[in-house]
Structure formats: structure tokens, C-alpha cells
Amino acid sequence: MALTLTTRLEAVNTIIGVIGEHPVNTLDATGGKPVQVVVAENLLDDTSREVQSEGWAFNTEKDYTLIRDSDNKIVLPSNTLRVDTEINKYTDIDIVQRGTKLYDRKNHRETFTKNLDVEITFLLDFTEIPESFRRWITIRAARKMAARYIGSGEMETFTLRDEFEARRLAKSSDSASADRSVFDNLQVFQTLVR
After folding, report:
1. Rounded CA gap, 28 and 80, in Å?
2. Which of 105, 130, 144, 169 could be a cystine partner for 94, CB 3.0 to 4.6 Å?
3. Is residue 184 one of the residues assigned to a domain?
4. What's the Cα-to-Cα distance from 149 to each of 39, 54, 57, 142, 155, rounded to whole Å?
5. Does one domain contain both 80 and 114?
6. Do 50 and 104 share a domain, yes or no?
7. Claim to verify: residue 65 and residue 115 sit in the same structural domain
8. 60-66 and 101-104 as β-strands: parallel, antiparallel, unpaired?
9. In terms of domains, do 68 and 92 share one?
10. d(CA 9, CA 15)
């Protein structure tokens, strides 16, 4: 049998496994799911949202064009976690995300005179993220589950070590695929343009 990327079912089974629950065969239970499975799924989703909100190479796009609608408003994709304009590209606006729309703080309005090129961070489905991040998110969610259900300091220390190692590997993987340079740093950029 060939190994495959971690599935959502495998992640949930790992999470409920830390509290001694037996694995489930499906997440599509028609007669209702056990409470622990529902809690595990919610923890997995919350942890994925938390980790992805930091913005990584796999879920952040630069020079992403946002198009105005017929009312000159810019409605963001529903899975937008964070959005900002590129450094020094627009001096006449200062955008922020308000719900699913953009708002211009500098001009105190939600309408725009042009389409905007932005840096945007998306929330991706668990199955769309790299394996190293799936592992980190799963271990982090499992640690949270153990803390809530078991409350064992020894168990939390064990899973915290696993979490730190998984985070290290995820960050290493992200750095390798990000093609970053020292000039991507805002402070370095500002120093150079003085």
C-alpha cells in the first residue's frame, strides 16, 4: 500500500486517539456523530484557521488583482484571511478588510476608483495544504483536545514537544518554497530606499 497525504479522517482519528477514543471509519455519519468526533473536527478547523492566518507561502499571493463590482466596491473572496496593498504601490489609499469588503481608511469610504493589486492570504481546505502543515495542525489540535479532556500535564508536555518539532518542519518547508531573500524584509527595504 502506498502512503498518501494525511486525510481529514486520519487527522480526526489522531486527535480523538489522544483521549483514548477508538478511530472512526467515516466523518459522514448519518445518524449523528459522537461528541468527541464533532469536537475534534471543530478543533481541526479552528487550528487550521489559526495556523493559516499567519500567512505562509502556500496560502499567500502577491500581485493578486481585486476587481470592483458595479457599485465600485471590492468584495473579497469568502476565504480571505488577510489583505494589504503592496508596499509603496498606492499612496492615495489605506485599505483594510471589513467583513468581506475592502474599506479605505485614508479616504473614509468603501468605494474605489480602480481595481487593486494586493497581497492576499487565503484560508484553504485541510486537503489543499502541504503535508508538513497538515501534520502540525493535527498535532496542535490533538494537544488542545488532550488539554480539554484529560488535563494531564505529562500528556501536554509530550504533545507540545511533538508540536514544536512539527512547527519547525512546517516553517522549514515553507521557507524552502517561498523563495524569500533578505530584501523581502520591510526594514531592509526602508533602509535601502533612504
Report:
1. 27
2. 105
3. no
4. 11, 27, 34, 10, 11
5. yes
6. no
7. yes
8. unpaired
9. yes
10. 10
Whether residue 159 contacts residue 142, with contact meaning beta carbons closer than 8 Å, is answered with yes
Asked whether residue 16 falls in the same domain as residue 111, the answer is no
| Domain count along the chain | 2
Do the domain assignments include residue 65?
A: yes
What is the rounded distance in angstroms from the CA atom of residue 51 to the CA atom of residue 144? 14
pLDDT in tens, 167-181: 899 999 899 887 665
Kindly report the pTM of this predicted structure. Answer: 0.83
Phi/psi of residue 60, each to 5°? Answer: -120, 130
The answer to whether residues 65 and 114 belong to one domain is: yes
Quick one: cell of 15?
A: 486527535
Q: Whole-angstrom Cα distance, residue 168 to residue 137?
A: 12
Domain that holds residue 115: 60-122
